[in-house]
Amino acid sequence: MSDRGIKKWNAYKSLPEHDPAIRKSMAEKYKVDRPIVSDEEAEIINDILVNYHGEEVEATYYRNNELHYYEGKFRKIDPYERVVITSDGDRITLRELVGLKQKS
């Protein structure tokens, strides 16, 4: 018996105008409200950033209605641009940070 490969999935693409609605529905399904950062948590984040000396960290940040996680080291902390640059080169603004802790 031969496999029909991609042909068997073409039936689901018969109405291309439905594609944007399906994508939007899926995006809404995974949408998360921005967590509220307490004063205590803001103090912890600030203390870690001020006293950072190349340790491994676990960061939680909110971007595009989703929570993202990063584990690793920061390459640079720029207080003037209010951004943290990860070792991957990703830029996380201080406003996006909702959680930060040093890895033990």
Q: How would you describe this protein?
A:
- By secondary structure, the chain is an alpha+beta fold.
- It has a domain of 64 residues: SH3 type barrels (Roll).
- Helix content is 22%, strand content 31%.
- The chain has two helices and six strands, in the order ααββββββ.
- The strands form two sheets. Strands 2-1-6 form a three-stranded antiparallel sheet. Strands 3-4-5 form a three-stranded antiparallel sheet, with no helix packed on it.
- β3 and β4 form a beta hairpin.
- The longest helix has 12 residues.
- The radius of gyration is 20 Å and the shape is elongated.
- The protein starts with 18 loop residues before the first helix and ends with a strand.
- The mean pLDDT is 86.
Nutshell version of this structure?
This protein has helices spanning 19-29, 39-50; strands spanning 57-63, 66-72, 74-78, 83-86, 91-93, 97-102. By secondary structure, the chain is of the alpha+beta class.
Q: How many distinct beta strands?
A: 6
Q: How does the major sheet shape up?
A: 3 strands, antiparallel
Query: Compute the gyration radius: what is it?
Result: 20 Å
Q: What is the annotated CATH architecture of the domain at 39-102?
A: Roll
Please state the structural category: alpha+beta
Principal-axis shape: elongated
What is the C-level CATH assignment of the domain at 39-102?
A: Mainly Beta
Strand content: 25-35%
DSSP summary: helix tally: 2
Strand order of the largest sheet: 2-1-6
Helical proportion, percent range? 10-25%
Oligomer: single chain
Question: Secondary-structure element order, as H and E?
Answer: HHEEEEEE
Flag low-confidence runs.
none
Give the distance, in angstroms, between the N- and C-terminal Cα atoms: 55 Å
